[in-house]
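[agent] plan:
  1. take the single chain provided in the ticket
  2. run structure prediction with default settings
  3. attach structure tokens to the ticket
  4. add a short note for the reviewer (M.T.)
[agent] executing step 1
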Amino acid sequence: MHIENFKFEDKKTFIVAELSANHGHKIEIAIETIRAAKRAGVDAIKLQTYTADTLTIDCDNIYFTIKEGLWEGRTLYDLYKIAYTPWEWHEELFRVAKEEGLICFSTPFDKTAVDFLEQFNPPAYKIASFEIQDIPLIEYTASKGRPMIMSTGIAELEDIELAVQTCRDAGNNNIILLKCTSSYPAPIEEANLATIQDIKTRFGLEVGLSDHTMGFVAPIVAVTLGARVIEKHFILDKSIGGPDASFSLDEKEFTEMVNAIRQAEQAIGKVTYELTDKVKASRKFSRSLFIVKDIKAGEAFTEENVRSIRPGYGLHPKYYREVLGKKTSIELLKGTPIKKEILR
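[agent] step 2 finished; step 3 output follows
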């Protein structure tokens, strides 16, 4: 499986910077954010393609007013009106991303967004957590034949199963599932990253993490648990403000996260019991059998004059019991490594 020039067979983590609402409704900020994401070392930049009217209706009754959390008191319509990325920006943002050598794709929130995004030949589509139950949207998006990345934040197991089957029924088997906690910011104790391995085993698909926790401990742990995609909100400067600013990483923080992920990849390595040359060289500091008290010719080796100590120039300690009781034909001084040839 691949997304543009990124091949998942290469065992590298696909790191995605989520632009989301972090542009203050200024295209100049959006463009500079893409350039900053490149400097931070990401593989891709992701947009969101919707308007307040494609997501909800302008209504302020109890059903459409947010009652708790970061956006308490706002209506859904007002929130999305503030957070959306103008559609007329997309062409320029896709162009800048390509210029920077970044993969660029988006999250469509309805069919009109999919139709609009098709003109940019996006290498993948992302289905947001709250849309994983929108089966008609998933079916239509999957029918375009592009890789489908789906967040599972508000999904129960049967929701995930239905979403995956919907993609497959549409003839699309290029699916990536992202573990996600749809809380903003998400408490780290609710990340439940152990689920990543279960998703991979249960569905036989590539898996990743869409993270809303503070900092980047969760993404690093996720990579060690098999996450192949890390998606995190990116902001040029938190002073820009906006609905997502508090749980987004700035350029410095994102760079630190990318570097930590790359180091984690190296640390994971492969299953092996072979020793590197450096480790082999260190074996001389391991334990072995030594004379620890002067012995005259004809004397026996005892617990008083033979010990297993560092360094490792003598016999393996596994021969300790075999050595005890044997006699030496020559005088041996304290600090002499025991070799087979001195035993009789």
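[agent] step 4 note for reviewer: The chain has two domains: 9-268, 277-342.
[agent] ticket updated
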